[in-house]
Amino acid sequence: MALAGRFPQAWLDELRDRADIVQVVSRYVQLTPKGGRYWGLCPFHGEKTASFSVNPQRQMYYCFGCHAGGSAINFVMEMEHLEFRDAVKLLAEQVHMDLPEMVGGREDVVSRSEKERLYEANRQCARFFHSQLWKPENAQVLDYLHGRGVDDPTIRVFGLGSTPARSDGATRELLSQGFTEDELVSAGISVRREGRIYDMFRQRAIFPIIDAQGHVLGFGGRSLGDAKPKYLNTGDTPVFNKRLGVFAANLLKKQRGLRRVILVEGYMDVVALVQCGVVGVCATLGTALTLEQARLLKRYAPEIWVSYDGDAAGQHAILRALDIFDQEGVRARVLDFPDGMDPDEFIRAKGLSGFEALEPMDATTYRMKQEMNNFDLSTQEGRTAYAIACSKHLAKVREPVELENHVKRLMVATGFTREVLLAQIGRTEMIEKERQPMYRHAARPLEEKNEGVDTETAAAEKRLLQLLSEGRVEAGTVTADDFISPERRALAEKLLGGMTPGAILEEMTDETQRARAASVLMQDSGARGEEDLRMTGDCLRILHKKRIDERIAALQQEMAQQRGEDKRSTLLKIQELMKERQTAGRKE
After folding, report:
1. Residue 312: CB partners within 8 Å, gap ≥ 6?
2. How many CB atoms sit inside 10 A of residue 414's CB?
3. Which residues pair with 219 in a beta bridge?
4. How far is CA 454 from the centre of its chain?
5. Distance of CA 447 to the CA centre of its chain
6. Does the pTM of the predicted model rise above 0.70?
7. Closest CA relative to residue 170, chosen from 156, 154, 187, 158
8. Beta strand pairing status for 204-210 and 231-233?
9. Domains located in the chain, CATH noted
């Protein structure tokens, strides 16, 4: 994992030892000891029978239902929706370990105590703004919120507020609480100009921006009347960067097991959808979607539904957001609202049932729909240009079944044949495969056949990995080169290098790869007493025989194309390998 390298490895090893994974998981999951492990209901998917297991010896967890697995740090990352660095810092605080100097990284510009002061100033400011909302002199703001359909319970859920009548009301209040002018300016609450200090936000409805840990980072202010800009956000401060977070992250954290996150443009869209009962809603913070926000959102759910306004600007922003999600490998869909409506308008008009009836559109279909607006499909020239434009999008579709569906729609819209469109897309191999007669494919490399497939070879490799993770293999008995599968060879190399299973899983950023590794490393080898040496030998013999089989198969293919002396020489090699195979099959 890229960020892991920023902490000294020895310090991370100590953190893993001190942050006992059973204690860490027990803060979130009720665990019951059984068979040397601890079991509980998986926090990552709904279940009634405990399939979530924690192994204290290997300092790792694994769910036999959803296949989530990892170390204590991985667990905190998932439960708290944190990046690696922040999860490490949280664990370090819990076990009272001081953070080390970062390796190759930039430490915080301000100290932890200074940041805590800014967080507290923001928190007290949010409370002050909220209290102002209910005062008669600020009735205009409350009337605005009620007029937009926001009820009082929802106002309290989001902590909505109002600026005071005085231009320096918030500044005066926080100064009276002991905060300094410099702290208020640093937090973005106040501004200093020409020797005066006054409030950053004036004559606005206030939306506190709260992170997943409950810190008030800053504020969004919606102007009343003709004041510009319409929305004003806290600028970058030592505790806030609008590129890094999303509005309503604190609510996302509370909603476990989300299958999708709905991403909207505005604060009022979030408020309206949440009030109507939609879960998993958030908004960008007054900026176009960033890579950092895409990385954050994929921690909350496997899929994002982009639900921007239905006007031209919103549609353009959707296309840009889809590109960002593609870049981050996040599956994204689009909720396309009719008649140029925004989410707030739509749900107030159609209600929750109308919103839930909307069918999300996959990214490629949406891009093709938008391309249709750029061409006149009543002309051959327009249909040709449309087919060429859509083919650029379809060239990125990897799944043949998905591609086939899109091609069929494009055939209807343009009149071109399937063969022509596949040629334009650059996928002529699909046509060639259909034209070729069925034949027996040549043997693929052994590692490809056995990668992730529970054949005899794969079973032997997995058993060896389990023996290694249990410390049951004598030094020098097994090497990484004994493994055929590249993925399992890499695991063996790390285990032989002294890494714990938990530390290995931390390094894996690919969730599918980590799930496969966790599945292997969590299992027991089954060796009892002196069985470990025999079991190791059996596994090595299986792997040796498979290597011989692969060599024999390759020589047989060569021999089929040979004549004369070359063929005789290859036959002798095959016979020698068959004798070696018989010897390898005998137990010592």
Report:
1. none
2. 21
3. 208
4. 28
5. 29
6. no
7. 187
8. unpaired
9. 2-94 (3.90.580.10), 112-233 (3.90.980.10), 256-367 (3.40.1360.10), 377-391+399-435 (no CATH), 446-584 (1.10.860)
Residue with tokens 């499909």: 377
**Residues 421 and 407 sit within 8 Å (Cβ to Cβ):** yes
Neighbours of 487 (CB within 10 A): 17
Please state, as a whole number, how many other Cβ atoms lie within 10 Å of the Cβ of residue 346: 23
- Rounded CA-CA distance 495/507 in Å is 13
Helix axes 418-425, 428-435, angle to 10 degrees: 130
- pLDDT tens for residues 75-100? 998 888 888 888 898 888 888 887 77
pLDDT at 226 over 80: no
- Helix ranges (H only) for 415-485 are 418-425, 428-435, 446-450, 456-469
- Token couple for 150: 């926001």
pLDDT in tens, 380-392: 999 999 999 999 9
Please report which confidence band the pLDDT of residue 451 belongs to, taking 50, 70 and 90 as the band edges.
low
Collapsing DSSP to helix, strand or coil, 178 comes out as: coil
* Token pair listed for 526: 């089954």
| Whole-angstrom distance, CA of residue 121 vs CA of residue 328 | 35
At 552 the pLDDT is: 84
Q: Could you tell me the two tokens for 5? A: 């390298």
Contact 249, 282 (CB under 8 A): yes
The values of phi and psi at residue 362, to 5°, are: -65, 160
Place of tokens 């999951």: 29
What tokens appear for 505 in the block?
């899983």
Angstrom CA distances, 84 to 4, 167, 574, stand at 7, 42, 52
Burial class (CB in 10 A: 0-12, 13-18, 19+), 511: middle
